[in-house]
């Protein structure tokens, strides 16, 4: 348990201290944000603000994770090192972050607000997602448990197995399913990242929830000495909790500088990385469908874009919202940016509370 506090604290300190140093580097190189011309006019003042701050978040989490394991091994040589599940979360975090970095760098190098085209971004995201999904079905531990299973999960595996038609077809269906989760989550966080601190603050709440879920799953593991009839078959729940705490800590450190008025933006480097990590937690902690509630704010904002685009095409140019994503609609209605951010954080918190309530209630009812 001490390692969880160490990992979270290290990530927070690294991000808090590293972000201003990264800001100075970006300013010297002239790596500033380009703002959409069709966005709210109030955002034009943000042009030139350093971006790609997500690199600090990713670096802080990776460093905190390995240093925590290194310290644990030094103090207790028998302690387990990095696990397959932990490394898979880092793979999707870093992999999606690299896709975002390429997108951010394209914007900066070409001096425009649009980076990679949609096709290129989807191809790169899919490549990372496929590699993650394939590896997640490998690396069984001594109990024969792999980081992911081919079953669709809610708060645990439901018994609805994608491998019903055979091992090969089941694996292919799982890869498609895992990619759908990863693509939806990365794009959801990316769409939410439009106001100072909005995506970072909402993500802290989601990772905080996975921190608690990981601890609970470890405490109620099917492979522990006191396994009950509602235990959880999750391969490395404590390591997942460590990473969730590190991500929450790094985001808090980054949020100090990202809150309004932001001195740095996370960019696609950050939003895609965070979305990838959230998707990895949903798959590896067996909470895939629960993610829809847990990440309810991201879902709501994504739906606003789908509704806006769909209605615009069907109606021949009419709009449901003044602007999509949803946070910009309320800006154009006259809400101050900070007001929108705090109220959306409240919505994110309510979604997280509801998801945790469902997670715990399912365990209680089954006793």
TrEMBL record:
Reactions catalysed according to its record: UDP-N-acetyl-alpha-D-muramoyl-L-alanyl-gamma-D-glutamyl-meso-2,6-diaminopimeloyl-D-alanyl-D-alanine + di-trans,octa-cis-undecaprenyl phosphate = di-trans,octa-cis-undecaprenyl diphospho-N-acetyl-alpha-D-muramoyl-L-alanyl-D-glutamyl-meso-2,6-diaminopimeloyl-D-alanyl-D-alanine + UMP
Cofactor: Mg(2+)
GO biological process: cell division; cell wall organization; peptidoglycan biosynthetic process; regulation of cell shape
Chain positions recorded as Mg(2+) binding sites: 190, 268
Subcellular location: Cell membrane; Membrane
Bilayer-crossing regions: 6-27, 48-71, 83-102, 160-182, 194-218, 238-257, 264-283, 289-314, 335-361
InterPro entries: Glycosyl_transferase_4, PNAcMuramoyl-5peptid_Trfase, PNAcMuramoyl-5peptid_Trfase_CS
Predominant place of localization: membrane
Superkingdom as given in the UniProt entry: Bacteria
Topological relation to the membrane, as annotated: Multi-pass membrane protein
GO annotations of cellular component type: plasma membrane
Keywords: Cell cycle, Cell division, Cell membrane, Cell shape, Cell wall biogenesis/degradation, Magnesium, Membrane, Metal-binding, Peptidoglycan synthesis, Transferase, Transmembrane, Transmembrane helix
Any one GO MF annotation of this record: metal ion binding
Pathway: Cell wall biogenesis; peptidoglycan biosynthesis
EC number of this enzyme: 2.7.8.13
HAMAP family in the record: MraY (MF_00038)
Matches recorded under PANTHER family: PHOSPHO-N-ACETYLMURAMOYL-PENTAPEPTIDE-TRANSFERASE, PHOSPHO-N-ACETYLMURAMOYL-PENTAPEPTIDE-TRANSFERASE HOMOLOG
Family as reported in the entry's similarity comment: Belongs to the glycosyltransferase 4 family. MraY subfamily.
Functional summary from the UniProt entry: Catalyzes the initial step of the lipid cycle reactions in the biosynthesis of the cell wall peptidoglycan: transfers peptidoglycan precursor phospho-MurNAc-pentapeptide from UDP-MurNAc-pentapeptide onto the lipid carrier undecaprenyl phosphate, yielding undecaprenyl-pyrophosphoryl-MurNAc-pentapeptide, known as lipid I.
Protein's UniProt name: Phospho-N-acetylmuramoyl-pentapeptide-transferase
């Amino acid at each position: 348990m001490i390692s969880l506090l160490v990992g979270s604290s290290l990530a927070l300190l690294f991000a808090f201290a590293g972000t201003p140093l990264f800001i100075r580097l970006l300013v010297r190189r002239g790596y500033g944000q380009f703002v959409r011309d069709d966005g709210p006019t109030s955002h034009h003042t943000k042009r030139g603000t350093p971006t790609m701050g997500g690199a600090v978040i990713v670096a802080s989490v990776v460093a905190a994770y390995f240093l925590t394991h290194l310290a644990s091994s030094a103090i207790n040589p028998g302690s387990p090192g990095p696990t397959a599940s932990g490394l898979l979360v880092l793979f999707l975090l870093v992999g999606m972050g690299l896709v975002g970095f390429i997108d951010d760098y394209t914007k900066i190098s070409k001096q425009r607000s649009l980076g990679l085209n949609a096709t290129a971004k989807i191809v790169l995201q899919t490549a990372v997602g496929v590699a993650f999904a394939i590896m997640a079905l490998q690396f069984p531990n001594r109990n024969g448990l792999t980081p992911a299973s081919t079953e669709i999960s809610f708060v645990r595996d439901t018994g609805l197995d994608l491998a019903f038609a055979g091992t090969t077809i089941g694996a292919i269906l799982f890869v498609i399913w895992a990619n759908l989760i990863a693509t939806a989550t990365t794009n959801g966080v990316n769409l939410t990242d439009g106001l100072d601190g909005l995506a970072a603050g909402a993500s802290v709440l989601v990772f905080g929830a996975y921190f608690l879920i990981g601890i609970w799953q470890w405490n109620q593991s099917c492979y522990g000495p006191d396994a009950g009839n509602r235990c959880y078959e999750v391969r490395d729940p404590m390591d997942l909790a460590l990473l969730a705490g590190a991500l929450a800590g790094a985001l808090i450190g980054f949020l100090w500088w990202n809150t309004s008025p932001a001195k740095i933006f996370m960019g696609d480097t950050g939003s895609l990385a965070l979305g990838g990590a959230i998707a990895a937690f949903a798959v590896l902690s067996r909470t895939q469908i629960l993610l829809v509630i847990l990440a309810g704010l991201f879902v709501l904002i994504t739906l606003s874009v789908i509704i806006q685009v769909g209605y615009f095409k069907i109606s021949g140019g009419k709009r449901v919202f003044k602007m999509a994503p949803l946070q910009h609609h309320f800006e154009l209605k006259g809400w101050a940016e900070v007001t929108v951010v705090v109220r959306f954080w409240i919505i994110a918190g309510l979604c997280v509370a509801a998801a945790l309530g469902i997670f715990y209630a399912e365990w209680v009812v089954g006793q």
